[in-house]
Amino acid sequence: LWQGADSARGDNTSKLKALVAEWVNRDLKPEFPLDSDDKHTHGFSNNACGRLLCPAELDWNNPAQVVLLEFREKCSLFTRGCIMTDLSFPAYLYNNYTANPDDLEEGLFKSKILLQGYKAVFTSPSSAKDVEGDGDGADVIQNNRRAKKSFNRVGKVKKHVAQIINMRKVTSRSIAYIACLLRFSLSSVTSWRSIDGDCHIPYIHASLPDFGPLDPVWSDA
């Protein structure tokens, strides 16, 4: 089971590696574009990735609030003496990649890149192209209905992951899984590891579903 899970995760990280670079370059237009074959162009040393990875309660563009320290191949984000950990929700999970500091649950799990990543892994990379909006909680229900109609018209086609595993609804665990994959794709870390600097990936996966029932935007996806 572990071998199968590792193999599936490896396939998914490879799939998202190129796609995430493409999405970030197209939507955020960083001064230094991401190279999907060079993870050293990612992470906090890249302004676009840094903005997305930054803890949502902080303002990436406020130098008084965020200090960036680079150590060779490792970058760590220090904020007033506190290190970013697995308990910090990154901006890429939020609507418009921006959180309300007075209510950190507002807009959570409504980002465009999260939806794109979800559809790319569980349905297909082409279905991720249907995601509209600019990180504005795109309409998952409408996109899914459109994909189903297209599937019915085409007839017999290769099954996607959700069909193979008989996945009929979006779960909080599956969203957490994609959130972890996206963090890895945006970071400068070159190979998957459970403990990524100051962040413990299993803790991230375990903590995300604690936020109760899914928002209606994820229903019927």
**What integer value in Å does the Rg equal?**
17 Å
Shape: globular
Structurally, the number of domains stands at 1
What is the distance, rounded to the nearest whole angstrom, between the alpha carbons of the first and last residues? 27 Å
Major sheet attributes: 3 strands, antiparallel
Indicate the mean pLDDT.
73
Structural class: mainly alpha
Major β-sheet strand ordering: 1-2-3
Strand content: 5-15%
Total count of strands: 5
Taking pLDDT < 50 over at least 5 consecutive residues as the criterion, the unreliable ranges are 69-75, 134-143
Topology (elements, then pairings):
Elements (H helix, E strand, L loop, with lengths): L1 H26 L19 H7 L13 E5 L2 E6 L2 E2 L28 H11 L2 H4 L11 H15 L6 H4 L7 H15 L8 E2 L2 E2 H7 L14
Helix pairs in contact: 1-3, 1-7, 3-7, 7-8
InterPro entries: DUF6698
